[in-house]
Amino acid sequence: MSASRPHVISTLAELEALCGPVGEASIRKEVPTLHPHYQALIEASPFAVLGTVGPGGLDVSPRGDPPGFVEVQDERTLLLPERRGNNRIDSLRNIVADPRVALLFLIPGVGETLRVNGRATISVEPALLERFAMNGQLPKCVLVIAVETALFQCARAIVRSNLWQAVSPDAPRPVPTPGAILEALTQASIDGAAYDRELPQRQRATLY
């Protein structure tokens, strides 16, 4: 720490002194391929967060489908379909520029998560798209991810957050609706109430 910034950690040595040594289990759980137990976590997961990096900076975005939507092709390769979305394609833009990706897999009711790092390519091979058709709709493309490292993350964050604690469907929404957010950000050029009213049907009609 410098005299001008006495409370800022700025070196690796300072960081390691702050956090302490890494336990053996935390080191040995990271492997360069998808162990069968790690494959089981991926096959049970209906939701993942995809992290990418590109010229404009970093991006993280959600991916979800029925459990196993990310297919384990082999111990070194994952296949992730790109479903219909808002066409921002932030993740895909980044992958075109920089193939490095990170995935975090979540499984409802399970505290442990799985972290996978690798490099992705964007494929539009017809046979591959057909493999991932849902409700008669093909994905836009499929990310073919060459796995570099995989490790499970302990359950502390899930336990602390009570993420899987049941929420009553009658519970009031604790945050602004999408319509309210858009109305505020656009100085009311978007009608928030109308947006929220039409959103459920629009989502059902454009899910795939």
From TrEMBL:
<dbReference type="InterPro" id="IPR012349">
    <property type="entry name" value="Split_barrel_FMN-bd"/>
</dbReference>
<dbReference type="Pfam" id="PF01243">
    <property type="entry name" value="PNPOx_N"/>
</dbReference>
<dbReference type="InterPro" id="IPR024029">
    <property type="entry name" value="Pyridox_Oxase_FMN-dep"/>
</dbReference>
<feature type="domain" description="Pyridoxamine 5'-phosphate oxidase N-terminal">
    <location>
        <begin position="35"/>
        <end position="154"/>
    </location>
</feature>
<protein>
    <submittedName>
        <fullName>Pyridoxamine 5'-phosphate oxidase family protein</fullName>
    </submittedName>
</protein>
<dbReference type="InterPro" id="IPR011576">
    <property type="entry name" value="Pyridox_Oxase_N"/>
</dbReference>
